[in-house]
């Protein structure tokens, strides 16, 4: 019985986790006062530290591409822009998780894997089942990283802030570059969004 059940559980677990990996989940918070007749010709403002940063310039190109898709237009040569757009981003270690074999937070999608996980937890039905003894080799160590993006849009004439959009996503990889296109897309989805809203956005993964 033990030899039959363990491979089946591992196979089911792999299928569930691979299904989860096909979508990109992020949380987006929006604060905006976007006038109905607001023009969309723009320039992208860089912070001093971003001027000679190849990584930033790569993200800026993605930002421009997605702004253009939302109806924004790069300012024409010699013309005055109507809005200024800037971005800031960063990552930090969010959580270190030790989990035992068979933890439902790892293998059950109804536990909302992205937000709810347990620390070194042994379910009672495994703790008392001789077919599933917990061994050191059954423990998993996972590090989760919180990747964050902020997009600011201001009026180029008055410097009034028109939109402050923040997107974040928790992922296993520490490389924010893997997720920046998704973060930008999530942040701009449905622009201009409802003021004061915080939504959970699910996108098809681009990885």
From TrEMBL:
Domain DUF4136: 36-192
Keyword Amino-acid biosynthesis applies: no
Organism domain of life: Bacteria
Keywords for the protein's UniProt record, in alphabetical order: Signal
Taxonomic path: Bacteria, Pseudomonadati, Pseudomonadota, Betaproteobacteria, Burkholderiales
Protein name as it appears in the record: DUF4136 domain-containing protein
Signal peptide: 1-21
Coiled coil: none
